[in-house]
User: What shape does this take?
Amino acid sequence: MPALHSSPRMVGRHTELAALLEAFDAGVGGTPRTVVVRGEAGVGKTRLVQEFLALVTADPLGARTAPGEGPVVAFGQCVDLGPIGAPFGPIRRVLRDLHAAVGTDALRDAAGSAAAIASLAALVPGIADEPAEPDEPAAEFAEAIEVLLEQLSRRRHVVVVLEDLQWADAATMALLKTLASTLRGRRLTIVATYRSDDIDRFHPLRPVLAELDRTRSVVRVEVAPLTPDEVAEQVAQLAGGLDPRLVEALAERSGGIPFLVEELVDLGDRALPDTLRELVLARYARLGDDAQQVVRTMAAGGVHVDDDVLSAVTALDERALDAAVREAIDTRVITADGTGYAFRHALTREAVEGEMLPSERVRVHRRYAEHLRDHRGDSPDDASAVAEHWLAARDLPAAFDATVAALRQSRSRFSPATSAKLTERLAELWGQVPDAETRAGTTLPALHLDAAQAWNDLGDPERSLRSANEGLAVCPDDPLMRAALLRQRYVQTFNLEHTGRPADLDEAVALLEGVDDRRARVLLSRVLTNMAIDEHGTYAAEHAARAIALAEETGDDPALAVALTVEAWRLAGDEDQDSGALAPLERAVALRLDPPMRAYVGNALTHMLVSAGRLHEAVVVGTQHYEDVVRAGIERGSGAAIAQSVAFALFATGEPETALHYARRARRLMSRADAASTVRLLSSHLVWDDRPHERDDLLATERGRIEESQRLYPEKAAWWAVERADAALTLHAREGTDAATAVLAAAEHPESRTVRRYAVLTAALLTHSPGRAGDSEVRARVERALDGWPDNELAGRVSRFVRAVLADGDGAPADDRVTAWRAIVDELSPGGMPIWHLQTARCRLAWALIDAGERDDAADLLAAITAEAPPLGVTRVARWAAELAAQARLVPADTAAAAQTKAGIVASLTPRELQVLELIAEGFTNPQIGQRLFISPKTASVHVSAILAKIGAANRAEAAALYAAAVSASASA
Assistant: This one.
């Protein structure tokens, strides 16, 4: 499917758009504002202005605006006509737009005097009775334009847009200063944009900007390059489904410039087309010969080149080099960057490097290689650079030897990404240099095995599998090497296809059994752990035990860590021992391990803590391990899984903002299908935070990813059933829903004990509430699911919770229900289950208190829930608490509690919903709300319905009264 030419929806820019809308609102109120929008070429200034204009000119009522109503928009484009330019060039277009919008009579009336009309006629033909004089002074034009805009803005809201001020003529710049600083009390909004990368210290716009900066009515908006996450969002709009690695590379190549992102999406890794190449090289082409030579030399060195390196490899003397560099900086091709210089965009470097002659390229790269070899090379990156320069200089033996040295350094400092690439480079060069095995100090199969392990550490199973297969293709009769490659192939096949090749493990065991070599016993331990993962029952226990014994016997910590981790998974899965499963992991994490192995164990430990309900510990442990993998540069591997576990634990402990950071990071790091789990986590958060429309949007956007994931991982459908059932929960039980049927099936899921537990709990909540019990079959299935659960940690807590829910439905005595729910709330308050279940338990306790006649205690508890739950990300339960209080006609025991309840209800709303509620309180209709907030009446109606449901108001009048009471309570608090 071809990529779109431009993003259908603007990415990011929320703060910048808000600044423009605030300036417009000020103009509506009679306070003129000028907004100066700056940013480099292609960063999205024009798109931002277009989005702003679309919002302020859209008809929110879906009907025609009456003549003389609504804002008048006039647009002026500055054009590069040299250092002088035609006076008021962009103002001509502005005046013609105004003429078209208001008509000749209105424009003449606003101009006032005949002299002003005559002056303006030169710019707007047809408004004067007689032709204007051809040599009318510019000062008269300026005065006439000022008067015209001042008078027009008395009657209509005038929005003037001036694009590309860097090319504006002096008269236009002077007029802008006047309009920004002297007009008062007029409905005028001016938006001016300019390219920040074109404004050097000699540019005529520079003093104008300095004066505007001192004007209080001028708002400055900086449009920065997109972040990597925003680039990924833009790419998803243009061409969804691209490999995350390609998206990351595209973000780096584009420098976050949306225009370049759009150009590069279809381009992939192919060469730049001539049209884009010419665009990128435009500034380079304006440089003198020396400056061009320096920039070409820089291009061979990378995006950034240190000053001492550039001085050593260039052919210019010191004085000429300084002059050339200064010229390149002033022309905005490069920029001073710390101890050296950098290209403003990676694309510029690519294009300039393409300008080098073949002989020049060889010569310059040889100079770089020799200088870095003799003066640098003390880091993996510098050593790798030496190898790259020798390769570009076409000296293959030197490139091979430099790559060997770079790989040695990379391994000593654990730079896995560098190691993987260097290893593959050596494999590529292996047959092109003499005595490769002697030079490298290793064999080609061992090199492929190293590459496979490095890609595995980086979370790239596809490339790891390819390396393992290449190693097997050239592996002689070395049993240890072949067994290691077979095991690697098994692991990566399992990671990619979710099913292994048992024959590979069987062959590996046959090769290793009986070999009297420590390395063979270590490798056999690793193979046995792979077999134990695939098995259950006695065979799994035997293989895990033998793997641990072999690792202990050989004293190999990494092998022991893997064996202990597998034993933990076996204890948790086969024997349902949460605490027992933590013990081997805590032992494993204390061993001496390299970063990938420590991340592997840390991921398992974090996940197991979450499964055991030890959520606060999971946050602490998971955060530490995540920081470790980031420092080690292996975030894409185990780091993504750790980030997801930490995100869940943070959501579950009531820290939604921090949780969102980790969830978004996990989503970006994971493959398309794997990231569906993070989408589910985000969807669940939106469910409990009572944001159903945002959840619907998320699921609609991610539908393809979710469907792909469920095809690849059908076992994860049970978790989605729980999420959908959670979304269907209401204060009162429901029966006969599809969600109930699906979640009961998930409650009987044979694979995951954790999903079974939460599914049973959700099924009970969905079908049982005080006085409402599910049918006998539902009850029987819930009871059957509880049978055999151990009375420990999470299983015990969930079991007690479920039985309390069933007792509610059974109509158990109120005092007994109070006792049961109070015990559950006390048990869960330190943690132990997600915060949404704790808040639900508190709501059920309040319900039991009401039924027991303890209305004051119930009122206080419901007030506390209403106030406390929203900041924890559990706004829905706050709404339930408000609904329950309203249904029971409760009044909190004291005035402070009453104020807390009302303030809590208001606090449960989003900022946009608060805006809507305020307008409801002022008596606005849905169309009027839409017009004020620049949204459609339908969207306004959706907001109103959601607000009424959240705050438990029966109608708009009750909502208005509740808002007024909440504001009063907040003011007196």
About this structure: Residues 263 and 287 are 25 Å apart (CA to CA). DSSP finds 50 helices and eight strands in the chain.
